[in-house]
Predict the 3D structure of the following.
Amino acid sequence: MSRISETELVLPALFVMSMQSDGKITTSKLIQELQRLLKPTGQDAQILAGRKDTYFSQKVRNLKSHNTFARDGYADRIYDGFQITPKGREFVEAKQDVLGYMFASTGFNYTDILKSCDDLFTSDIKRKVIPLTEFIREGSATKREVIIRERSTMLRDAAREYFRNEKDGLLYCNCCNFEFAHQYNPELYSSCIEIHHIKPLYQYEDEDMDKTIQLALQNLMPVCPNCHKIIHKHHIGINEFDILRQNVHLFQYK
């Protein structure tokens, strides 16, 4: 896996700055927050020879020493760190929904998050990005949230049809093999299987939804609520799914 670039750090760094009440953050705190959000692996997580810094933390420090944000005017360099500019806030706000979805879903692979950040950073700021969320929020919602909910529901419904067992038409958890109809009245179980996103899934507003769904289906997995919670609680990525399956007792139905 290649090491993170300064360009890939810009958008997540601006996201962290935008979450501060005054838009200011010290370099040391920025390193801590970015490590928490991105969870660097591979060489990025290794300690530099004769230093206390990792390759990742040194790359964050380079944002200041190389004055990286000045190129686009997204943040100012201050004495002990950075301060986001109005232009930087506008840039982040245009992508706020998908960034919040991506960083809240803690099971995403480090490489996939970096690729998504790079895609979002280089895309036209005027193009709206819609996250295809795992959980459909209930209750009142803004018009924008309604759009997100509708498209996420379309993806969820398509995934349920795609993953139905060919023999019995039922949906089994891809981790523990649990299937609700064997345990509950079929009238009660149908909406309980959950669809886990293996990679961050989002769509630009002007893209065709049917085409997006066909591409997205390759990065989804049906799971029961228990396994879904385990996946997120322990930050289980795609490379660890086989280990997870080996550590659960598969249900044996008669």
Observations:
- The two ends are 45 Å apart (CA to CA).
- The longest strand covers residues 75-78.
